[in-house]
Design goal:
Layout (H helix, E strand, L loop, with lengths): L1 E5 L3 H14 L4 E5 L6 E2 L6 E4 L12 E5 L4 H11 L9 E2 L4 E2 L4 E2 L4 E2 L4 E2 L4 E2 L4 E2 L4 E2 L4 E2 L4 E2 L4 E2 L4 E2 L4 E2 L4 E2 L4 E2 L4 E2 L4 E2 L8 E3 L4 E3 L14
Parallel strand pairs: 1-2, 1-5, 2-4, 6-9, 7-10, 8-11, 9-12, 10-13, 11-14, 12-15, 13-16, 14-17, 15-18, 16-19, 17-20, 18-21, 19-22, 21-23
Antiparallel strand pairs: 3-4, 23-24
Length: 221
Amino acid sequence: MRYLVVGAAGHAQEVAWSLRAMLGGDPELLFFDDRVPPGPLASGLGSVVGPLDRVAAYARTNARLVLGIALPRLKASVVARLAPLGLPWVTVVHPTATIGPNVELGDGSYVAAGAIVTVNVRAGRFTTINMHCQAAHDAVLEDLATLHPGARLAGGATVGEGAELGTAAVVLPGVTIGAWAVLGAGCVALRSLPGGRTYVGVPAREVPRRGRVVPFGQGAA
């Protein structure tokens, strides 16, 4: 099996490391990135073949795509860009992550080392649950949502499509974070927050909007 890792920066290498730990052995990992020059990676996990345009040349029946990107808007962009290839996306879960019963992880999602996902949690396609995150019972992460390291979702919390929780951000029980919202590092959401906006502080307060909202699958190439 050949694994085509989309992205080659630090996060992509962490995902690839997790994939290797999940699979065991020494799987073939090829990296593709528009900004990282071709050549071996410092981590020793593999080499950058070239930009994303080169992925098509390696799209064989035994190839799988691995999403090595955490930023929601960029995830949406590359997923749309590579959709015509028709290759399946791998769901990567590091062996040290704790996954409870009745947990749903969508295609292309990633659960990093030390994360805890308890019971009855639903994570959609291309979601990112980074190192030492926690998602308690009945939490929901919609497609493309990202939890950066140490973020925590209490029971019944919902993170909308493409929403992004910064490092150590916290969402209280039953609170909903709207689609494409951004919570800054250490932010605490005490109540539900509308989507498409940026929030910081304790409790979370809105700051001026950042950029435009990009619907799933309609990001720029």
